[in-house]
Amino acid sequence: MIRPIRVHERAARRVARALHGPAAAALIAFSAAVLAACQRGDDAAEVEAAERPVAVVDDDTITVGQTASYMRATRADRTHEGARRAVEDLIAVELVKVAARGEPLTPEQEALRETWREQLMIYQYRDSVLYKSIAVPDSAVEAYYREKVGDEVKARHVLVAVEPTATPQEKAAARARAEEALARARAGEDFEELAREYSSGTTAASGGELDWFGRGDMVPAFERAVFALDPGDISDVVETRFGYHVIRLEGKRKKSLEELRPSIEEALRAPKEREAVRAFEDSLMTGSGLEFLESNVDSLVAVFAADSVGRVPERLASLPVATWRVPGPDSGGKAGAAPRPDSLTIGTVVERFRGLPAENQAAVKALDRGRMVQALAPLVRNEMIVGRAEALGMELDEARQRQLDDRLESVRVTEMLRRRVRENVTVSDSALRAAWTADSTRFAGSSFEEATPALRQSVVQERLNRANSWEGQREMVLEIAETVRDDVDVERYEDGYEGVLELLGPPPDTSSVAGGGAAGAGAGQSPAGDAGAGLGEAPAGAAGAGTGQAPAAGDAAGPGPEGSGTP
Fold first, then answer.
1. Radius of gyration of the chain from Cα atoms?
2. How many CA within 13 A on the CB side of residue 280?
3. Phi, psi (degrees; rounded to nearest 5) at 159
């Protein structure tokens, strides 16, 4: 009988780190181009081409655009075979998601679901109640456009980069090289080719091309030079902290009011929305009769201090740590209507605690009574807002319900992959003996029992390295996909592969692009992690951030902070 040998302590720590690293989020890294990086083009024909299907898995469609994005992110070969392989990878991703849907939720995942549902409900209440009466008059939009929206320009540049530590001699040599490029450009040579030849920046491969930008998007010296040009003009040598530039203006435009109206309205509405949220929360906390019950808060602190969250007695779980009043269900949820009592119990707090990341749990366990009350306040506020929403009979709309379902699917997938990694790093006697035999020279003079600790660490590390590699993650996804492939309808549309290659265009010349990594290094996106830490529509923030008000939209139609751009 082969007895499984568990990983020793030091290797176990490596396993724990790996299970929260790339291997744990293999699906998300593997399909990030589909889940996050697929962008629509501006041209209607391009959008239509990108949305053509290349495969359908169950009821989920994989499009030309998603496949192209995946191939860009993974630096796949831009051939028919490369497109076919990419489609098969993305089919595997969808099959893993199907497999994950059959996974039961753990208590921790149940806690996450309730937290995310609550947060989404808060956003829905915010949008449908608090923001409902906020309007931006046309006159305000038009005034903003007149006063704050300026020209945009499109340019190409040669950049002879200079390191911050460059010597005077190195700076002089770089400037001379830029002057040489300028002379050739003004003599009529192809500017794009000169940019490829002379530039050392990341735009070299594209012939120095920059996207459209406005005032405030680039560093000041670069901005002054480019906005002083007329289309077709070439600047003198311009010095910035990045080095020496030669700039040619390609075009100048000002977007129309109708193009910018949505973003201007958003920018003007944002401060009004923040004020509405602030006033609502103030009235909520001061007019609800909120009271924290100190003795029960002490009991909650004791539960965390004793690390007994998994076995809270029913008597304790039902104790309220805070009480307040909310409008009754027959009142339409309006303030001042007949109130009903509500509370936050120890059991509810413990359930939410189980859904927190490990580092957050450690911080909660260290709280005393005063700091626990401070930590509970946002949770109480959220409970109050959800109570208002429920008093209105509100349920998640279709889009937010889908968002919640997608988050839960991601959690199930991540747990499935973690389990697969754990299985892979559980080392049996036979695997250790095979490794001992294969590496007999290294362990010459040692018995199997003497070599076991070093062998175990070596085998575990090798498997972890494989699990953290791109191909290892891909293999893991493909293996899981095979378990459900026969039970799921998959249709492929190979005539769409040529559309993928057309959308991609020719492969880029990366010979002079700075910062290139290994081909196939992954989709280049961070794992989603706790995908529901925020509320989807806003950047993720701390749980319980009130009604989830987003940061100010900023001057979406106008310039950003001065000097924020990098030519």
1. 29
2. 23
3. -120, 115
Q: Which of these, 465, 434, 462, 467, lies nearest to 448 by C-alpha position? A: 434
Average model confidence (pLDDT) for the chain? 79
pLDDT digits over 3-27, tens only?
Answer: 232 333 333 333 333 333 333 344 4
Query: How many CB atoms neighbour CB 148 within 10 A?
Result: 13
Return the HEC string of 327-368. Answer: ECHHHCCCCCCCEEEEEEEHHHHHHHHHCCCHHHHHHHHCCC
Torsion of CA 492, 497, 500, 502, to 10 degrees: -150
Q: Which residues lie closer than 8 Å to 531 by C-beta, 6 or more apart?
A: 406, 407, 410, 411
Residues 375-382 have a mean pLDDT of 90
Q: Which pair of tokens denotes residue 9?
A: 């302590």
Length of the chain measured in residues: 567
- Quick one: tokens of 535? 């509320």
User: 509: which residues sit within 8 A by CB, 6+ positions away?
Assistant: 196, 205
Token readout for 458 is 């070596």
How far apart, in whole angstroms, are the C-alpha atoms of residue 347 and residue 377?
16
Tell me what pLDDT residue 351 has.
86
Tell me the two tokens of residue 226: 């480019």
Whether pLDDT at 265 is above 90: yes
